[in-house]
Structures are given as C-alpha cells and as structure tokens.
Amino acid sequence: MVAYLDAAATTRVDPRVADVVLHWMTEEFGNAGSRTHEYGARAKKAVQQARAFIARTVSAKTEEVIFTSGATESNNIALLGLAPHGERTGRKHIITSAIEHKAVLEPLTHLRDARGFDVDFISPGPSGRITTDAVLERLRPDTLAVSLMHVNNETGVIQPVAELAEKLRATPTYLHVDAAQGYGKVPADLTAPIDLISISGHKIGGPKGVGALVTRRRGWDKAPLEPIMFGGGQERKLRPGTLAVPLIMGLYEAAKLFAESRKTWERQARAMRERILAALGTTRFHLNGDPEHSVPHILNISFDDLNAEALIVRLKDQVAVATGSACTSASYTPSHVLQAMGLDDAVAANGLRLSWFPPQTADFDPFPLAETIARMQPAAR
Ligand SMILES: Cc1ncc(COP(=O)(O)O)c(C=O)c1O
C-alpha cells in the first residue's frame, strides 16, 4: 500500500460523513428551495442547522454564512464581488501576498490586468510568514481590501490574520482570508473580526465540491459584495443555484467531527511530525518555512543534491507526496511560494510537501522512506 501523505491536497472522506451525504442523497432528497411541501422544508431546516454550526465555529451569525462549491468559488465571490464597490468609490488598491493560492492570485491578477486595480503582492522572506507591519506599511486611503491566506498550503506557515483583523478594524479596508487550509485547525484565529472568510470542506475529511464564505458584519457595515453570478437568488443572491444539500450536510458533519477531535488530532499530527523529522535525521535536508508558526501536519523540505521530481518517481511505490500545491505540481515549475520566500531556484524547484491527517495514515513509518532518500543522496563532499 502506498502511504498517503498529501492531506493538504485533499483528505479521505470520513465514513461517518459519507453516510450522512448518502442519507441526504437517497432518503432525504428535497430541494431546500421548495416551499410547497415537507421535503423542501426538511432540507431547508437541515441546511439552516449546518449554516448555524459553521457560523458558530468562526463566531459569526448564522445569516453571515453562504454555502459555495469550495474555497475557490468563495475567493472569487469575495474578491470579484468587492470590485464594483472599489470602482465606484475610486478605491482600487488591493494588498495581498505573493504566496497565496492560485484561487486568490488569479482573480486578483484579473482585477489588475482587466479592470485597472493596483495590486501589491507582498513577499514574506525565508520564514514564509507575512508580517502585519508589511501589510500596514502599504495601506493607503484607497486600499479597498487586504487578502491574506490563513495557512499556506505549501509550507504550512500560519499567517497573522487575527492580528491583522484587529489592526484593520478601525480602517475602511476590508479583510479577506482564504482559510482553506486552516479552517478547523487553528480555530481561534478565525473568530477575529475578519470580514470575509473562505472555507473548504475537503481538507477536514469532508466532501470535495463544497465550502462556505463568511460575510461578517462590522456593526452596521459589511463588505458590500455584488453578485458575480445570476440565477434563482439563493444564498442572498451571492451564490445562486440549487443548494447542494448532501454536500452541505457532509461539510457540517465533517466540521462537527473535526471540532470534537481537534485536540487529539493536533497531538497525533505533532507526533507524526516529530517521527518524520527524526527519520530524516539520516538525510541532508532543509526545512522550508518557520517551524515556530506552522500547523503540525504539513512539512516542506528540500534535500541537498536531490531533484524533487526524481525523488517523487523513486518514492512513488512507498508514499504519495507533492512537490507543491496540487494545481501546480503537474508542471514542475519552481514553486512560486518558495521563490517568494527568496529561496534559490534549486531549492524552490525541489521542495517536497509531506502532509498528513490523523488518524488517516496513523501507521505510516517514515524510516524506510528516509533510508531511500539517504541512499539517493550523493556522499557529502
Ligand atoms: C490555500 C488554498 N486556497 C484555496 C484552495 C482551493 O480550495 P477548493 O478546492 O475548495 O476550491 C486550496 C486547495 O487546494 C488551498 O489550499
């Protein structure tokens, strides 16, 4: 069996979640928008329970959560949805980081190239962490929004989103956080006054194709989003389309199960990290990103004199790992994240990401893996 160490790309759906999804597909199959019968009413009530739960996990109100197809869609609704307000008010400056996922970089590049926005992409330095000061230094009267990810998907480095939310609170600048990797895992951060939070289901044992966008009020004010899609008006018109009740219920179940087991999860994830690092002691490797500010289940490493592509091919019968995020790993170009951290191309092109999701892969033994790597490394000169 090939061990699965690519949990940052996706996780296995928990069987208890799968049961819930199946139930809402086959037993209960009503359209949450049907107002004329019980089937619809039951589906709507269930969705409202799911919405209330997701809202509570980030200290938001139930009506501030909309369901989407995942973090990519949430990011697009948030960033493209804010743009018309910026255009109308002459606030066309946006601050983000150079280490964001493509699901933020691409909509923002679009706003820059097609709609004349001025977008600042901040690079973090070798720690992989953007500082609050680096963001605040770039703040201008016309800064519409800051978009900063919660946890980087390639390095696992946690960004200071809660601290930033407190600083931006007194300014008119809206804060958007792509929390695809951090949701549930570092829960306290997301209870901060962040205006817009993107959530994904499949990084916490939930199904692919479902997520949420939190649109938090600031007193009477809230991020003035305009719809980017039009249809039946569901989800406060921001995400029209028939609600994916089974997937939403799957997200709800996964979030509930994860919240109940998070402390154990964290302990197990940390233990696996220690085991992997101990095993790698026989190799010559660099850890990419600041371990003091990292989630416990993602490691990004480069090995001296070893090419990541060759390594992955050699390891493919032992372990499934990634070079960078799943979306860029098809091309084997240097990681834009490691490059933005100022690592040279030899290191940036050869980063290996190991990520795990306890109790999935609980029995993984990293020592044979480390042995293979050590054997591949030429003797130190
Ligand atoms: C940081 C980050 N943002 C966005 C996404 C996209 O999420 P989804 O698959 O839910 O669209 C991912 C998933 O890989 C991610 O890691």
Report on the structure:
- 37% of the residues lie in helices and 15% in strands.
- With 381 residues, the chain is α/β, with parallel strands linked by helices.
- The mean pLDDT is 94.
- The site of pyridoxal-5'-phosphate has 13 residues, from α3.
- Its EC number is 2.8.1.7.
Describe what is shown at a glance.
Its EC number is 2.8.1.7. This protein is an alpha/beta fold and 381 residues long.
Describe how the helices and strands are arranged.
Elements: E1 3-4, H1 15-26, H2 38-57, E2 65-68, H3 71-89, E3 93-97, H4 102-115, E4 118-122, H5 132-137, E5 143-147, H6 161-168, E6 174-178, E7 196-200, E8 211-215, E9 217-218, E10 221-222, H7 245-279, E11 285-287, E12 298-303, H8 308-315, E13 319-320, H9 336-340, H10 345-348, E14 351-355, H11 366-376
Parallel strand pairs: 1-13, 3-4, 3-5, 5-6, 6-7
Antiparallel strand pairs: 2-8, 7-8, 9-10, 11-12, 12-14
Helix pairs in contact: 1-7, 2-7, 3-4
The structure holds pyridoxal-5'-phosphate.
Pyridoxal-5'-phosphate (PLP) binds next to α3.
Catalytic activity: (sulfur carrier)-H + L-cysteine = (sulfur carrier)-SH + L-alanine
Protein name: cysteine desulfurase
GO molecular function: cysteine desulfurase activity; iron-sulfur cluster binding; metal ion binding
